[in-house]
Amino acid sequence: MTGELTIHTESLRSLPDDTAVFESIINFRRRTMIRYMGQLPPDAAVETSELARVCAAVEQDLPLHKVNHQTYRHAYQAVRQRDIPHLADENVLKRHDRDTITRGKAFPVFIELLGAMDGQLD
């Protein structure tokens, strides 16, 4: 029995550790950003402020016009300092300058994965 356990354990240990995919989508704000970008035309560019406002509205379950300044600022700082850099590092989003964001090369994989999680794929 120990021999079988060793064989199974060795095969599991040799599998890749693709945690980057999960780190990118485990965060609700990052999923919101990916889903939002997925609703726009493929070549659309958005500003950091737009992503932050959308995230704040979704997180607070409010219409965009009801998001207060404090909630927006909190989302803006997180989006700008953590979420965009992380998604850019994973090529999900592409940062063209300090505030202009478009889809990155890996975006199709992530939007498809979220679609599968949402039950949108047949």
Features:
122 residues; mainly alpha; 3 strands; elongated
Description:
The chain has 122 residues and is mostly helical. 62% of the residues lie in helices and 7% in strands. The chain has helices spanning 2-13, 19-25, 28-39, 48-60, 69-89, 107-117, and strands at 46-47, 93-95, 100-103. The chain has a three-stranded antiparallel beta sheet. The relative contact order is 0.16. The mean pLDDT is 86. InterPro entries: DUF7344 (IPR055768). It holds the Pfam family DUF7344. Residues 25-98 form the DUF7344 domain. This is DUF7344 domain-containing protein.
Write the layout of secondary structure elements.
Layout (H helix, E strand, L loop, with lengths): L1 H12 L5 H7 L2 H12 L6 E2 H13 L8 H21 L3 E3 L4 E4 L3 H11 L5
Antiparallel strand pairs: 1-3, 2-3
Helix pairs in contact: 3-4, 3-6, 4-5
Short description:
With 122 residues, the chain is mostly helical. It has six helices and three strands, in the order αααβααββα.
Order of helices and strands: HHHEHHEEH
What are the segments in which pLDDT stays under 50 over at least 5 consecutive residues?
Answer: none
Mean pLDDT: 86
Biggest sheet layout: 3 strands, antiparallel
What Rg, in angstroms, do the CA atoms define? Answer: 18 Å
Helical content class: 55-70%
- Strands of the largest sheet, in order across it? 1-3-2
Overall geometric form: elongated
Q: Total number of β-strand segments?
A: 3
Terminal Cα separation, in Å?
Answer: 41 Å
Q: Could you say which structural class the secondary elements and strand pairing correspond to?
A: mainly alpha
Compute the number of helices: 6
Work out the strand percent.
Answer: 5-15%
